[in-house]
Amino acid sequence: MNSIPVDLSRLSGLLCVSAPERKTDLDGEVRKDRDGNALWVTGIAVRRAGTRKASVIDVQTSAEPEGVTEGSPVGVTELDVSLWEIEGRHGLSYKAASVYPVRARTDNRSGSGPASTAVPAPSQRERGGKANQS
């Protein structure tokens, strides 16, 4: 299955609508990635910048998104989408390196009011994933 990177600069208003939970199969067993890490899924409302319509996507990560709660603004790193098809059913699957909380701050210098500040996500090495190859 080929994955396609998502241009995060074209999205705005990312908001957690379903708190992170462990991903399970139909028998209730925790699903794991190829490295044996438990998979987590977080429901995130996303909106294409400049539009009104929002969609909710389930984003899968290989580490628990710490500090992410329902109703909180979030950030996402390295978001990819894949098309899947199994036994006549099909859909989209979203995977990210991390989902992390974003907190509001007040920027008095610009007079623009509240702004968002990203809370740094743990490094790939800390989460047991692959290190960035940039």
Number of helices: 1
CATH domain class: Mainly Beta
Question: Uncertain runs with pLDDT below 50, 5 residues or more?
Answer: 109-117, 121-134
Q: Multimeric state of these chains?
A: single chain
Describe this structure in words.
This protein is mainly beta and 134 residues long. The chain has one domain: OB fold (Dihydrolipoamide Acetyltransferase, E2P), CATH 2.40.50. The chain contains one helix and nine strands. It has a six-stranded mixed β-sheet with strand order 1-6-7-4-3-2, with no helix packed on it. Strands 5-8-9 form a three-stranded antiparallel β-sheet, with no helix packed on it. The C terminus is likely disordered.
Helix and strand arrangement:
Blueprint (H helix, E strand, L loop, with lengths): L2 E3 L5 E12 L17 E9 L5 E8 L12 E4 L2 E7 L2 E7 L2 E10 L5 E6 L5 H4 L7
Parallel strand pairs: 4-7
Antiparallel strand pairs: 1-6, 2-3, 3-4, 5-8, 6-7, 8-9
